[in-house]
């Protein structure tokens, strides 16, 4: 192997050895991801459309495809060219079984991302990088940014997941202590057991501070993670928190703009990628969490919630309150909002009834008395609900 030094002070041989070990770890301990609504193919395309990205969504690349869940979803939605790359042979076997019904439309390959050249892949409408960036060595992160930047075609989008914010920084520190506690373990199960014992001991040692409740809450969150997640994430020495603003600056070198988080986030209507990314990093300062960051190559970067390209839908329950207001609860997140203005209530009721486009939502808002024009009411309500 070539052992020349790399720019960040690592070397090619050690990075390849780490990647090979990482793949073997996933072969030894399965990590079976569930279905995540924030990664739904049509949802991500909808976010892109709000900023003028209008890919057909038929060409999809997954860098670190694991069990092939997003690829299979994209194939079921009519995708034509679907490519998945992963370093775990066991995970790829699961992906092959899941994607088998789609035949030659899906191409899966066992490969180290350090060996992948963007010109060999081509460009895509949608690029996934889920559960990889924040547990990869620095050299692999640089390669991922380069691959994503060059493989997203004009008007295309990408989604990258990572932990961000103060709680992510705490998680990084806690994981470091858990790795120390499990360093001499002889097997994955023993390592996880040692890490859980270390976590329990750590909770007992937290001193009374202003941050104690938040610290204990984060430790509890780590403790509730399944063994496979704790093993692959917590005991991975490359785990690192990520700041959206920093990642966005790297992506901008390739013409990729930060668009939004898929899920709750800051205001979307700020005018540029850098200001949106700064707003996202500011938003994360309050707490942070696991983020699904969407980047795109739109012809412009203006956000337009009135676009006819998007159909809106929401999973909400509706409860009439004693004071006459209406409480809506998001079935996915459990978050609630109380609506007192009739026009906004009419719009949300339309969403509860089923998918609706912009014109249908404006029409719904217009059925209720309001001092504001229906389009103004609809824009204000929809923006707040989306955030």
Short synopsis of the structure:
This protein has three domains: about 210 residues, Rossmann fold (3-Layer(aba) Sandwich); about 60 residues; about 80 residues. By secondary structure, the chain is an alpha/beta fold.
Overview of the structural elements:
This protein is of the alpha/beta class. The chain has three domains: 12-165 and 241-296, Rossmann fold, CATH 3.40.50.150; 172-233; 311-386. It has 15 helices and twelve strands. The chain has helices at residues 12-28, 41-50, 69-76, 89-99, 118-121, 138-151, 166-181, 188-205, 212-223, 227-234, 244-252, 273-285, 342-353, 358-365, 374-386; strands spanning 59-63, 81-86, 106-110, 124-129, 152-164, 257-261, 289-296, 311-312, 316-320, 326-330, 336-339, 356-357. Helix 7 (166-181) crosses helix 9 (212-223). The chain starts with 11 loop residues before the first helix and ends with a helix. Mean pLDDT is 89; it is low at 1-9.
For the structure shown, list the relevant keywords.
Rossmann fold, seven-stranded mixed sheet, single chain, three-stranded antiparallel sheet, 12 strands, 387 residues, globular, alpha/beta
Q: What portion of residues belong to β-strands?
A: 15-25%
User: What is the C-level CATH assignment of the largest domain?
Assistant: Alpha Beta
Q: What percent of the residues sit in helical stretches (DSSP H or I)? A: 40-55%
Shape: globular
Q: What is the annotated CATH architecture of the largest domain?
A: 3-Layer(aba) Sandwich
Strand order within the widest beta sheet:
3-2-1-4-5-7-6
Question: How many domains comprise the coordinates?
Answer: 3
Main β sheet profile: 7 strands, mixed
What is Rg? 22 Å
Gap between N and C termini:
49 Å
